Amino acid sequence: MKSEVILDTDYRLVEDEPFMNERQVEYFRRKLLNWKAGLLEDTKDTIEDMQEGTRNIPDVADRASEETDRALELRTRDRQRKLVSKIDQALRRIEEGEFGYCSDTGNPISLKRLDARPIATMSLEAQERHERKEKVHRDT
After folding, report:
1. Share of the chain above pLDDT 90, in %
2. pLDDT tens by residue, 110-123
3. Phi-psi region of 100 (alpha: psi -120 to 50; beta: other; left: phi over 0)
4. How many domains does the chain have?
């Protein structure tokens, strides 16, 4: 059984702490859970709005505009669904003790990068190498 880590609400990441200590792990776990909760709440609101918003619009231009808005909203929700999946993967990495380490090199990912993008699986350098390789393969 894990011990409960007490984390002040004003806790800030500090570079000179041991990497991925209990406080940092708890910080990222909470950040990911809060992000996920916000995305799921947005999705719930969208579903409710779409169910309530179904109506017969006689004007063709107005109907087309509403359909375009709905399509855009559904694409946004699909991106958020994929993001929730990545958040779940990051939470799994936390549970497995792999969070914060580059999947390519095994080296720590910088705290600044993780704070900005807590779903990151590669260090900035490894990500850039990966993207350059992808571009080369795409261009050939």
Report:
1. 57
2. 999 999 999 999 99
3. left
4. 1
